[in-house]
Specification:
The chain has 181 residues and is an all-alpha fold. The chain has nine helices and no strands. Helix 6 packs across helix 8 and helix 7 packs across helix 8. The protein is elongated and about 75 Å long.
């Protein structure tokens, strides 16, 4: 029997093996990746029985690699969340913020506005905010980062250079709404 056909015949068992270790969509990705990497190597295996054992070993190794990469990503997101949880008082602007900041914040997506409100205004830790929202700390940190970025973009669009060039926010504003809060 053709070795590729043999592997194709056992595809469901190989996928089942992976599905017990990772979610189904990831299992399919891993199987495809291993099949692509091994297509040129199957003829080097001595017999059909050894070929299936070799495939299971390759799948097991790919699964371990997947979990290792996922762990690295989770740890990086956790570090990012910790970094954003600690307030950076040196970066806080001095002076009064103009009302355009409030208008810009009101125009954000609700989840972004809530993230900024809870973390930046209410001084809730990113990890605590994540628990409130039922998301991971890494996801909360990313949401907060995107919210800050969106707010900055809206301020630059509203106030122009006074909001973006200094990097200090919208203080000493010369935009249409100069009223301070």
């Amino acid at each position: 029997m053709d070795r590729i056909a043999l592997i194709a015949e056992h595809r469901d068992e190989l996928l089942g093996f992976l599905s017990r270790r990772v979610p189904r969509n990831i299992a399919e990705d891993i199987l495809q990746e291993v099949l692509l990497r091994s297509i040129d190597k199957v003829d080097a295996v001595r017999d059909d029985e050894a070929l299936l054992a070799w495939m299971y070993r390759a799948l097991r190794n790919a699964t371990v690699d997947h979990h290792r990469r996922a762990g690295v990503a989770d740890r990086a997101l956790a570090r990012f969340a910790e970094e954003t949880a600690a307030p950076d008082h040196a970066a806080e602007p001095t002076g009064e913020a103009c009302r355009c900041v409030l208008r810009a914040a009101e125009a954000l997506k609700p989840e972004q506005a809530k993230a900024l409100q809870r973390v930046a205004v209410d001084c809730v830790a990113v990890k605590s905010f994540a628990e409130e929202e039922g998301i991971s700390a890494g996801s909360a940190a990313v949401r907060l980062h995107r919210a800050r970025h969106a707010l900055r973009e809206r301020l630059v669009a509203t106030c122009g250079s006074c909001a973006g060039a200094s990097g200090r926010g919208c203080t000493s504003c010369s935009c249409a709404d100069e009223e301070k809060v």
